[in-house]
Amino acid sequence: MDGNAGSQGTGRAEWRAMLALAWPLVLTNLSQFALGLTDSVFLGRVGTLELAAATLGSNLYFAALAPTFGLALAAAPLAAQTRGRGRGHLRGMRRDVRAAFWAVAAGTVPTWLLLWHTEAVLLALGQEAALAALAAEYVRAMMWGMPLFCGFIVLRGFLAAEQRPNAALLVSAFGIALNIPLNYWLIHGGFGVPALGVAGAGLASALCNLAMLAGLVAMIARDRRLRRYHLFGRLWRFDAARLREVAAIGLPIAGSMALEITVFSAAALAMGWMGALAVAAHAIAVQVAAMTFMVPMGVGQAATARVGLATGAGRPAAAARAGWVAIGFGAGFMALAAAVLVLAGQPIAWLFLDAANPGAAETAALATTLLLVAGLFQLADGVQAVAAGALRGLKDTRVPMLLAGLGYWVIGLPSGLALAFPLGLGPIGLWLGLAIGLFIVAALMLARWVRLSRLGGLTTRRWPR
């Protein structure tokens, strides 16, 4: 049913369909985020130095992860459009998933090589020797879970295209439950295992990624409807044509992610020039802002699937409607999140700190101010995330990557550095610059979606690939 974009009944149906798909994806994102949050909470209570080192290490880790992660994300729009076309979708979606697995494998080895030299990279970037050494311990333990996590993302994209997101949610919830005792055990030691400190936290995350991928594979294999796809049959078969399509869609996604992740990574490095206390406060604010971001990120993933399904079925009005509904969801939630961060920043900051640790009060005070700034850019962050997800459903990934580069690196980070150092605002100035960049990206992404989703302006022939 194509229908009128303004039809009340059809609009209500899309809201229900979007909500049904989005909330498990949101909760899955929150559960995956909770793995890193658990590390921060445990290490924050060990000491400020350990928290700062894990923050620097994880910033480098996620920056290096971006290319492989982007390739994994390409499975979702590919599978959704294949599913929307209907005819021959079983074989087509199997090819989509297999090619995404190949792409993840290709991206893993160079990423591992970079992460293995974390200490040298951080030292070259001007970080303190003690922080760089501890960060390397954390990353070298965590990096083994990277391809497992990306494999999980491929399968989650397949399930989203099938409108079956609950399996990913269940295994992610199991991952959280497993990560808490693993963190306590591996960080502090016991039962014949020595205390591993920051390396223990990284190893716990890697083991949880293994458990989550294995759990999702088992659930797909046991499901009568899903196992007819034979996703894991003949994985060794190389499909050059599909792999090129994964690269064409996934590499710009990776570029967009890398631009966003690395701008916050660069901000963390700049915080390192201001001392461990600034890094720790930045870590708290980033963790909280990242947690709220998991909601529009999940809504954006649902938008990719819903827009992609309508695209594959040749229903442009339905694709436009799905994207606008998703943007409404994301903007509404982030407006509420902004109010919480502005009004409750101080108690939130203290959740990450032990008052008995040296520098805790100063860290909490600075983190509270940074959370206030984070509250100011919540709405922009939500809109840009969901609009980017909707555009991915159209396989429009190259232009959004360029828009992200302009907003984050040409405007946002230079503004932040100027406010932080020459103008003397320090950490607060750096975060104000990031906020400016996010507002620019949100405006540009929304304008791009407005142009492509204008009724009558969406046709499969004209959509960028």
Explain how this protein is built:
By secondary structure, the chain is an all-alpha fold. The protein has one domain (8-453). The protein is built from 18 helices and no strands. The chain is globular, with a radius of gyration of 21 Å. Mean pLDDT is 87; it is low at 1-9 and 455-465.
Task: Give the gist of this structure.
This protein is mainly alpha-helical. The protein has helices at residues 8-46, 48-73, 75-85, 89-116, 118-124, 129-142, 146-161, 166-188, 198-222, 224-227, 240-272, 276-312, 316-343, 345-350, 360-376, 378-393, 398-420, 426-453.
Rounded mean pLDDT score: 87
Q: Termini, distance in Å?
A: 25 Å
* Record field, number of beta strands: 0
Number of structural domains = 1
Helix proportion: over 70%
What is the percentage of strand-forming residues? under 5%
Succession of helices and strands: HHHHHHHHHHHHHHHHHH
Low-confidence stretches: 1-9, 455-465
The number of helical segments is: 18
How does the overall form come out from the CA principal axes? globular
Structural class: mainly alpha
Task: Evaluate the radius of gyration.
Answer: 21 Å
| Largest sheet: number of strands, sense, barrel closure | none
